[in-house]
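Recall that a protein's primary structure is simply its ordered list of amino acids. Everything else, from secondary elements to tertiary packing, is in principle encoded there. The following example makes that idea concrete.
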Amino acid sequence: MSVRFTAKARRGIVALTAAAGLVIGVAGCSGGDGGGDDKKPDSTRSASRESGSNPSAQEGQSETPLAELKGSSGLILQITSAQRDSAGGFVTVSGNIKNDGAQRITIPPAVRGDETEILRHGMSLGGATLIDGKEKKRYYVLRDTDGRPLTTTGFSSIRPGESVAVFMQFPAPPASTTDVTFQLPTFASGTIQVSG
């Protein structure tokens, strides 16, 4: 009698385990993600991982770069937008730094600039400036209340063929100024058009 009871109990446990497995499997397949259409490709993670930038700073970029500036060791900076925020009084310059070489390139420390307050916060594009030739003014990267530059931070090197999305925020020149010269240490200078 106990052998028959043990066999029934085993069959019951096996059936219960199989049913639980099916329920979990069905729940895992449905997952509430709308059939998988909402999943983002893995490639979108790499830029934000290395750049530390806010993705919203990349909105409004045009397909054709405003400027393409050559840097050292095969680095290229493509500036894709320079958008004025009239309410906030700043300009956000967005783009990509690409390694056009065949080997991994370490970002030159000179792109941080040489101001002690910016250097304390690690790798950034804090050395970037905008020059308004019309008003004869130079604009430096803005900083938050702790002295951190309002720019992409936390990257150190770029693999061959890889691009890193970058941004920098500057005080806005007067509304009458549309063309400014962008400068970043170790890169060529270029004229870009401010929109907005």
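The domain at 52-193 is CATH 2.60.40 (Immunoglobulin-like). The first helix runs from residue 2 to 30.
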